[in-house]
Amino acid sequence: MNDLHFKRHRRLRSSESMRALVRETHLHKEDLIYPLFVVEGENIKREIPSMPGIFQLSLDNLTEEMKEVESLGIRSVLLFGVPKQKDEVGSQAYCEHGIVQLATKQIKRDHPSIIVIADTCLCEYTSHGHCGVIRDGKVDNDESLKLITETAISQAKAGADIIAPSNMMDGFVAAIRKGLDEAGFTNIPIMSYAVKYASAFYGPFRDAADSTPQFGNRKEYQMDPANRYEAFREADSDIEEGADFIIVKPSMSYLDIMRDVKERSTLPLVAYNVSGEYSMVKAAAQNGWIDEKQIVLEKLISMKRAGADLIITYASKDVAKWLSE
Ligand code: PBG
Questions:
Q1: 49 Cα: distance to centroid of ligand 1 (angstroms)
Q2: What is the pLDDT confidence band of residue 210, given thresholds at 50, 70 and 90?
Q3: Predicted structure pTM score
Q4: CATH code at 197?
């Protein structure tokens, strides 16, 4: 044809079948973890204004939602609780009849094969909205660990399959592992929010979980978005302390970190596609500016390509539908 020496990459892109044959990464329904916001009360189905399609649900409405989730082929849910009463020490987080504990029992009773992951943090339960207890105007690390461990144990007692601590206190994996083991839950894994940045992308979540800090911010415990090596230290310490899964959060602006962490560890890596990332896509789609389906599938496959094995995403139901088409 010609005497030029160049490579014909287009040979492997010549048809959909050829492209499918050489595709390197795949997205499966099994990869999806769907977050749910459960609230106390009855007959509540309150859409979060900044997160179209996502609702705060009371237990009666959770029943419907879970039927849909299971019928779509989603196997795992991540539970966040929004209690009626908040206090200084977040007592509802570790109360036997707390909303997450009740929701966990209900889901495990009605859908035993669904994996229930309990988010373990205090921010949704404290009156000040911080992820731990306050001493002298600061979040006290070691005092917080005690209550966080108590929360994890009570979630395990309620039947949670996985404990997912998101509080970013130092030593939370070691403390929770010890607490779970001593309480007889040696087989309950910890999915650690090991690498969690202090991100503005959590804004809509704080509306959903009603967990905006009432003073200050979370920069003394969540990570600086400018740092890469700090992510290695955070991941390494959680692995050493016994984490079973590692989460990197947020996802879209942190794909480099995801790849880095994947290369340091053989543990299952989880991308948290956070609220702000969901809301941006929804808003643009509602304006007719982008193709929502194509954009969502592209961003999720980019997380898989970066090394994520699992993805926590508010778009799970849509994605499960699209994957079945
Ligand atoms: C609780 C927690 C947060 C998120 C998950 N667990 C909020 C925060 O740290 O402020 C954010 C999730 C999201 O934005 O989707 N500590």
A1: 17
A2: confident
A3: 0.97
A4: 3.20.20.70
